[in-house]
Amino acid sequence: LRLNKNALKELNSDTFNVPQLKNLDLSDNLLENLKADVFKNMKKLEILCLANNKFSIKSQLNFSFLINLRRINLDNNFVGPDIELRSLFNPNGYGLPETITAISLSGVNMTDLPYNFFNPVDKSLKELTISNNSLTKLFKLPLCLEYLDISYNPIKKLNISDFPYDDPLIYLRTLKMNGLEITEVPKNVLSALILFDLELENNKNLKEFSNLTFGRQILRDSYDFYIKNLTLKGSNLSSIDHG
């Protein structure tokens, strides 16, 4: 059901009586509030898009009725401060099911997250987009992530502990780190990953990219190098470390 790009400001609890609905798009409207019981007759819903509305910390969103939800998009709503205070996964918070597989929180004005914030979905979350916020450091990343976008956050430094070797993200294949404030990509920082796609575009302070970023030299040890797409476009590299 697509209701996106309209001028909806309010939905009543009896608006939807669609128990078989799997996909609902309410993006690009003027919604400021959604009572939890709006979703009471949509328990089979798997995909919900609420991007580009007017939600804020006052909205007190709750999705506890959506027990089969797999993907949610809350991009470009002012809910970051609320997310930092209330758990995404507690029934008294946002109430997202712990079986959810994809969460998008781009441009929600998030500044800080507890280190273990995503622990409840450590074994289920596969896609996480948290770009265009004000995060200065990473948190503990869910172990089963396949796709991660942390672009356009004021992160100044990448640490090996962000992608630890003793607790590796063995499923992560796509990593987007565009528009950060990093000055280098140090050696071994990505050595625990088996990436197919790595984006490092528009990092204007980036001056160094170590030949041992992946723990081995890209050309010399190419037999076990899995990268298919690597982009450093629009950064400030003055030289390439050739080992």
From TrEMBL:
The gene is LRR_A. The keyword Mitochondrion does not apply. InterPro entries: Dev_Immune_Receptor (IPR050328), Leu-rich_rpt (IPR001611), LRR_dom_sf (IPR032675). The lineage of its organism: Eukaryota, Metazoa, Ecdysozoa, Arthropoda, Hexapoda. This is Leucine repeat-rich protein. The keyword Signal applies. Pfam families: LRR_8 (PF13855). Keywords: Signal.
